Amino acid sequence: RNVKVGPSPSWLVERLESIGIRSINNVVDVTNFVMMETGQPLHAFDFHLLQSGPGADRPCVVVRAAGDGELFTTLDEQERKLDSGMAVIADETRAIALAGVMGGLNSEISDSTRDVLVESAAFSESATRRTSKVLGLRTDASYRFERGTDWNMVEYAGRRAVALILETAGGEMASGVVDATPCPPEPRTVSLRFNKTDELLGQSIDPQTQLNALLALGLELTEGDASSPSATFIIPTNRPDLKREADLIEEVIRLYGINNVTAAPPRGAVGTNEHDAVHDSLSTMRSILVSMGLHEAQGQTLIGRDKAIPFCGSPVALEYPLSSDMDVLRPSLLPGLIDAMELNFHQKADSVALFETGRTFQPAAGDGTDTGPKEMRMLGVAISGAANGGFWEGPDRDRSFDFYDLKGLFEEFMSRWGLPAYQLQRMDNPGNFWVEAAEVRLGKNLLGVIGQLHPVVQKKRDIRKPAFLLELNVDLLIRLANRSQKFKPLPQYPSTSRDVALLVEESVTHDQILDAIRRAKVKILEEVSLFDVFRGGNVPEGRKSLAYTLTYRDPEKTLTDKEVQKAHDRIVESIQAQTDAVIR
Fold first, then answer.
1. What are the start-end ranges of the E strands in 479-581?
2. What is the pLDDT of residue 466?
3. Alpha-carbon distances, residue 77 vs 88, 109, 118, 202 (angstroms)
4. Whole-model pTM?
5. Using an 8 Å Cβ cutoff, are 497 and 571 in contact?
6. Distance CA 379, CA 401 (A)
7. Residues 532, 584: contact at Cβ < 8 Å?
8. Three-state secondary structure string covering 393-414
9. CA spacing 20 to 30 A to 264: which of 159, 229, 432, 504?
């Protein structure tokens, strides 16, 4: 939109394209090119569109304050209302450009332009930014003027633009240059206290190192040296960003190397605390659960006795409760999550997937070993409703959450938390709260419980779809987790697999089969996958058929068929010995 000239020499086109300016029909924008090259914005006017005053033989261009309410149409063909806080470039009758922001439509270069007036200037940073912000007009020129330009570059950039115009479009340059600088700005001086750098950085940098860094940037030392407490520098005009001591310190640190700055606690830090690690663990736990699509809930610590009874026969009661709905401390997070599920379904939610971390309270054991109620950190998860509520088509669009959705979330969480070796033990008598449930164990430690909410409780709480719940002991999770990460190289040798179908009693669980396989202690076993469970047909009543795929791999060589078969037979024998399974 500024000075367009052509045809252009190939070297200029190539140079423009190298800095991201595209040429069109071998025509290039000279003023934009010079701005990219030097950092100095320019503007060009059609000389014959500038108006002269009465009796004048040529126009006079000035910089003045805009009038309040003055209307001006910029190059983007938008009429803008100005105020007296804005500067304009004007001829003797009207404004022709917004100073430092954008030119005017009334003096735009066109295909018929023959004489060009090139303007190069340095404008106030604050005034340019105010004009740009008030008018909502952001340009390449305003971006640069707001951050400061080199006033010493003004004349060079103008002459550079004129030289390119003459080289690419021909013509003649009028003699002389009109310079309206009232007086050159005084060189800026900034002092640096060497110890201030050390205070801000938190470590010591040798004064000579600081001095050398600033001298390498072209700053001129006028006072002081490395043996002095401070030094004063003349700032070159091409560094308008260096205005105060902190700017010099920033440059010193940049050249010193940010990687060489050692980490240190902030001022006022009193050191570490044992609860810091717990806080970090809880934060990581929340991040994992959120990344799995769950939403965090926050329940009440106080609940009603009737909601606490299924989890604790004698919950911790308040001596002076405010109401019967909040008269005991919660022994579990699940009552609060059920309340949240009920509320969400009342608000017409199709799907609920929540988790909560918080404290629960169990009464003293009563055997003289406990001095009072036991406080524990727990994690609760609750899901119910549509499993794929965001889908508008497909075979699983109307599928609801089932137990395996919760089990999958649980398995993924335990794997990412660093506890993959847990066991699930089915509860023979889950009580009136669960329709079916299993204890989560790790060795002798009871980590929690997972299961499905009883339909009677579900109906009483007005939860429309089956609800599935999980609760884990956070304190045990934190204490037992192995969070260390180990790199395992990708396998270089192929794997091989064998299938085995087992006929077992109905009471035999998948965990028992896995335990029997582990007892065989086969080092080359890489993976065990259950791919079929079958009942009926030729399978006798009271029994079931389980089909597994066992994958074998040796990280150091290719296995032979004989080696694989030997390992496979060893596993099958272990399963038969532990479960009385019959191989089908």
1. 496-505, 525-534, 543-552
2. 93
3. 17, 14, 21, 54
4. 0.52
5. no
6. 20
7. no
8. CCCCCCCECCHHHHHHHHHHHH
9. 229
Cis peptide bond prior to 7, omega within 30° of 0: yes
- pLDDT tier, 489 (very low <50, low <70, confident <90, very high otherwise): confident
Residue 400: half-sphere exposure toward Cβ, Cα within 13 Å: 10
Spatial CA neighbour of 386 closest among 376, 377, 396: 396
- Pair 327, 317: CB distance under 8 Å: yes
Asked whether 72 and 88 are in contact (CB, 8 A), the reply is: yes
What would you report as the CA-atom Rg of the chain, rounded to the nearest whole angstrom? Answer: 39
CA distance 206 to 195: 9
pLDDT tens string 194-238: 999 998 888 899 999 999 999 999 999 999 998 999 999 999 988
Q: Return mean pLDDT, the chain.
A: 87
**For the chain, counts of helices (H) and of strands (E):** 16, 26
Q: What does the alpha-carbon distance between residue 212 and residue 246 come to, in Å, rounded to a whole number?
A: 17
Question: What's the mean pLDDT in 282-303?
Answer: 93
Tell me how far apart the alpha carbons of residues 250 and 152 are, in angstroms, rounded to a whole number: 24
- Give the residue-averaged pLDDT of 35-53: 90
C-alpha–C-alpha distance, residues 579 and 548, integer Å: 15
Q: Token digits for 78?
A: 């938008």
Block residue for tokens 């999550």: 337
DSSP secondary-structure letter at 233?
Answer: E
Give dist(CA 453, CA 24) in Å, integer. Answer: 70
3-class SS of residue 313: coil
**Residue 176 to residues 52, 158, 173, 179, Cα–Cα distance (Å):** 20, 12, 9, 9
Q: Is the pLDDT of residue 294 over 90?
A: yes
For 343-375, the pLDDT digits (tens) are 999 998 889 999 999 999 988 876 666 667 889
Cβ neighbors of 113 (< 8 A, separation 6 or more) are: 46, 48
**What pLDDT was estimated at residue 398?**
79
Query: Which token pair is 176?
Result: 């002389």
In order, the DSSP letters of 80-126 are EE--TTSEEEE-SSSEEEETTTEEBGGG---TT---EEEEE----HH
> How many residues would you count in the chain?
584
Question: For residue 532, what are the β-bridge partners?
Answer: 547
